Amino acid sequence: MKIIETINDAIHGVVWGPIMLLLLVGTGVYLSIRCGFLQATKFGHIWRNTFSTLFHKENGQTHSSDGTNVTPFQAVSTALGSTIGVGNVAGVAGAIVAGGPGAIFWMWVSAFFGMCTKYAEIVLAVQYRQVGPDGTHYGGPMYYIEKGLRMKWLAVLFALFGGLAAFGIGNATQAAEISVAVNNLTGTGFDSSLITGIVLMVLVGVVIFGGMKRISTVTSYLVPFMALFYILIGVAVIVFNAGALPEVFRSIFASAFSLRSAGGGIFGYAIFTAMQNGVARGVFSNEAGLGSAPIAHAASSTKDPVQQGIWGVFEVFVDTIIVCTITGLVVLLSGLYGGSLTGGALTAKAVESLTGSVWGGHFIRVAIVLFALSTILGWEYYGETCWGYLTKNNRAVRYGFKVVFLVLLCVGAISSSNTILEDTSALNLMWNIADTLNGMMAVPNLIGLLLLSGVTVKLTKRYFQTGSSLEP
C-alpha cells in the first residue's frame, strides 16, 4: 500500500498543484472575459430562468417536452446531487484547518469564475451531444472534444479518467462516509458496516437499473430536500450566533490577505496557503472545469445549449456560494478549527457546540448520508456514460459497470470499519486516489473548453441578442 500511496502522492501533487489550480481558475477568468462576465451582468436573467421557473410549471422547465429525455431541472438535480456532497461538509472544514479562515474568500473567488466555466461546459455538451436510436440524448466533454476538436485520443483520455474516477469519488469513498455516519448515529459501538453496504447496494441498485430517467427523478426530489434540510439547519445556527458574524467576516478577509511569513521564510505564505486551499475546495466542490456535470446536463430535453448552460451558473451558486459558505461560517463561529478535529467530524462538533445539543451533530451526519447518496447516483451515470463512450455504448459493458459499481459500494462501506477503529490510513488513501483521478479529468476538459471557447462565445452572443442560440 505504501508504493501505491507514493505514486499517487506524486501524481496528486501535479494535478492539484498550484499550476493546475491556476489553470482551472485562469480558464474561468478567460471565459468570463470573453462572455462578458455573464454570471454577474446577466444574473437577473439567469435567476428568472432557473430558480424562478421552479414555481411556474407551465413554462416547461420542470416537465420534459418529450417522453425520452429528462427535464432541465432533473438534469441540474442530478448534477447538483453529485456536486453537493461530503466535500461541502467535510472538505470546507478541512480547507479552513489547512488554510485558515481566508480559504473561504478564495473559495468564493474560484466559485465566481467557476460559474462561467460550468456554463461553458454545459453549452458545449448540449451543442455537441449525440442522439441515440431511441431519441435519448447523451454527451459530455468526450463528445465535444471529439466532434468539436477532432481529437479522438484526447476524448478517450477524458472518458477513461472519468470512468475510473466514478469508482472512487462517486462510489467507495462515499459509501465509507455513509457507513461512518451511520455507525456514529447509532452510537451502539456495533460495527454495522456490512449491513450498511448491503442496504446501500439494494437502494442504489433499484435506482440505477432504471436508467437516467429514474436517477434524475429520484435526485429531483432528494436534492432539493437535502439542500433545504442542510441550509435551514445552517442558517438557524448562524442566526442564533449572529452577534459574532462581524468578527468572523473580519477574520476571513484579514486571513485572505495576510502577509505573514512562514517562520521567517516565504513572505505572504498565509495568502498562498489560504488561496491554494480555498481554490482547491471551491473547484473540488462545484466541479467546475472537471467535466463531470455536463454529462448529466447533456441528457436534458432542452434544445437550446445556452438555455441549459445558465443552469450551470445556478448550480455553482447553490453549491459553493450558499452551501459551502454555510459550512464555513458555522465552523468559524464555533472557533474549533484550531484544534485536532477536521473534516466532517469538525463540522458536526461545531454544530453541537453552537446548539449545545448532540442532536446538532446528528443532523449533520444525516446530511452527510443524504449528500453521499446523491453523489453516488450522479456519479454512477457519469461513469456509465464514460464507459459507454469507450465501448460504443455496448449494453453488456454498461450493465457490467452497474454490477461492479454496486459491489464496490459494499466494499467501500466495509472499508470504513478501519476508520471506526481509529485507523484512518485506508480511508485517507482511498480519498486521495479518488481525488487524483478526479483532477486528471480536468486536463483534457480544459483543453476542450479553451480551444472551443469561440463556439461558446458565438452561441452566447446569439442567445442574448435574439433570445435563442439555435441557428435561425
Secondary structure category: mainly alpha
Shape summary: globular
- The CATH architecture category equals Up-down Bundle
Q: What topology, given as strand order, has the largest sheet?
A: 1-2
Q: Write down the overall mean pLDDT.
A: 83
Helix content: over 70%
Characterise this structure.
The chain is mainly alpha-helical. The protein has one domain: Amino acid/polyamine transporter I. Helices cover 76% and strands 1% of the residues. Strand 1 and strand 2 form a beta hairpin.
Features of this protein?
single chain; 472 residues; mainly alpha; Amino acid/polyamine transporter I; 76% helix; globular
Summarize, please.
The chain is mainly alpha-helical. The protein contains 21 helices and 2 strands. It has a two-stranded antiparallel ribbon with strand order 1-2.
Topology readout:
Layout: H1 2-15, H2 18-34, H3 38-41, H4 43-48, H5 72-83, H6 86-99, H7 102-127, E1 130-131, E2 137-138, H8 141-149, H9 152-186, H10 193-208, H11 211-240, H12 245-256, H13 269-286, H14 293-297, H15 305-334, H16 343-355, H17 358-390, H18 395-415, H19 417-420, H20 425-451, H21 453-466
Antiparallel strand pairs: 1-2
Helix pairs in contact: 1-20, 2-7, 2-13, 2-20, 5-11, 5-15, 5-17, 6-13, 6-15, 6-16, 7-12, 7-13, 7-15, 8-9, 8-20, 9-10, 9-17, 9-18, 9-20, 10-18, 11-15, 11-17, 15-16, 16-17, 17-18
